[in-house]
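Listing S7. Sequence submitted for prediction.
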Amino acid sequence: MKADAAKPSAPAAPAVPPATLVFSIQPWGEVFLNGKPGGVSPPVKSLKLAPGKYKVEVRNTTFAAHVENIEVKSRDEVTIRHRFQ
């Protein structure tokens, strides 16, 4: 009989530190990351993201959407600034 339960488990991959996306949106905007809702800024001031490429879209019902394509690396801090007018 084999003792499968005695096999050592693989070590967990080290966690990659996230990047931080900071928002400076006026007067307000609904944030979408790759088409998925990320919250409304303000009150949302920042989001933690895994490193990678993102399409950031900020929508305000009264104005045209603001879209930025970004690429973030571990520990990056990127600010999205936009004033709807």
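Caption to Listing S7: primary sequence and predicted structure tokens for the chain studied. The chain has no helices and seven strands. The chain has one domain: 17-83.
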